[in-house]
């Protein structure tokens, strides 16, 4: 898809690899100055350096999205470097091994909630403070098909991703009158490093995952990026507070 983000600034978390990195590259290709944030410093530095070599404007920020001070500093650095913030993709997330709800360790529950839910809230908080001053901006939060359905063995992950949709809807109502649009994407099983690691660990069967999708294949990272860029563009100017499923038909069955 072709979009123009010339003179726009986009912030992407979880941008060291996977869907975040692909989305950052697409924003850059379409003219945006991009801020790539990730907890893995080497990965995000390498990604940003490559974008700069390719002629784009990009910076890297090492950030643990569950840490409020680091999130504040991430947004402050964005403003200090580029002067404004027009689009944000709050994508950083983690997964823990499958386990029955009764056997889920409190530490694992807290870890998933800290990154996948608290992290999205913190990012929105500091992004919105800047966007509210501007009177403009778009935010796309990364939920999951796990934000729409249940899944045995994945209570913490699904609870957090359901929570992301609640945050998205509430904030969307608050900020639409202020010129800021907030939506969410709900990726299905996408060909990413996280999914590869789940397959290798035995937590996910690739064949079973494909069989559950009417489209008959895993999703591609660029298909998520396209949805995020659309939600961040004027092409979706009347779309507010939506959870857009990009899942090959999984959730319509």
Q: Can you put this structure into words, describing what you see?
A:
This protein has a single domain, classed as 3-Layer(aba) Sandwich (Rossmann fold). The chain contains eight helices and seven strands, in the order E-H-E-H-E-H-E-H-E-H-E-H-H-H-E. It has helices at residues 18-29, 41-53, 68-82, 106-134, 155-175, 193-201, 206-211, 221-231, and strands at residues 9-13, 33-38, 58-62, 87-90, 137-142, 180-187, 243-246. It has a seven-stranded parallel β-sheet with strand order 3-2-1-4-5-6-7, with helices on both faces. Helix 1 packs across helix 8 (221-231). The longest helix has 29 residues, at 106-134. One of its GO terms (molecular function) is oxidoreductase activity. Belongs to the short-chain dehydrogenases/reductases (SDR) family. Residues 8-188 form the Ketoreductase domain.
List keywords for this structure.
253 residues, alpha/beta, Rossmann fold, seven-stranded parallel β-sheet, 8 helices, 15% strand, KR_dom, SDR_fam, NAD, oxidoreductase activity
**Radius of gyration, rounded?**
17 Å
Shape: globular
- CATH H-level superfamily title: NAD(P)-binding Rossmann-like Domain
Strand order of the largest sheet: 3-2-1-4-5-6-7
- The poorly predicted ranges are none
Major sheet: size, sense and barrel closure? Answer: 7 strands, parallel
Q: Estimate the helix proportion, in percent.
A: 40-55%
Topology, element by element:
Blueprint: E1 9-13, H1 18-29, E2 33-38, H2 41-53, E3 58-62, H3 68-82, E4 87-90, H4 106-134, E5 137-142, H5 155-175, E6 180-187, H6 193-201, H7 206-211, H8 221-231, E7 243-246
Parallel strand pairs: 1-2, 1-4, 2-3, 4-5, 5-6, 6-7
Helix pairs in contact: 1-8, 3-4, 4-5
């Amino acid at each position: 898809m072709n979009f123009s983000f010339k003179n726009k600034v986009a912030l992407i978390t979880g941008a060291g690899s996977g869907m975040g990195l692909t989305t950052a590259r697409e924003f850059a290709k379409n003219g945006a100055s991009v801020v790539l944030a990730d907890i893995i410093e080497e990965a995000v530095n390498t990604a940003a350096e490559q974008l700069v070599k390719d002629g784009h404007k990009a910076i890297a920020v090492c950030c643990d999205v569950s840490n409020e001070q680091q999130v504040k500093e991430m947004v402050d650095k964005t403003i200090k470097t580029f002067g404004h913030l027009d689009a944000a993709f709050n994508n950083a997330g983690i997964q823990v091994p499958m386990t029955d709800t009764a056997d889920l360790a409190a530490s694992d529950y807290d870890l998933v909630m800290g990154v996948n839910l608290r992290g999205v809230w913190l990012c929105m908080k500091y992004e919105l403070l800047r966007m509210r001053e501007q009177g403009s901006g778009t935010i796309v939060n990364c939920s999951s098909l796990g934000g729409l359905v249940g899944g045995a063995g994945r209570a913490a992950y699904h609870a957090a991703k359901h929570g992301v949709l609640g945050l998205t809807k509430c904030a969307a109502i608050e900020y639409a009158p202020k010129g800021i649009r907030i939506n969410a994407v709900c990726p299905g099983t996408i060909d990413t490093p996280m999914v590869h690691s789940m397959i290798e660990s035995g937590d996910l069967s690739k064949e079973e995952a494909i069989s559950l999708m009417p489209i008959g294949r895993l999703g591609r990272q660029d298909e998520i990026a396209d949805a995020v860029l659309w939600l961040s563009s004027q092409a979706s100017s009347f779309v507010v507070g939506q959870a857009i499923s990009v899942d090959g038909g999984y959730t319509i069955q």
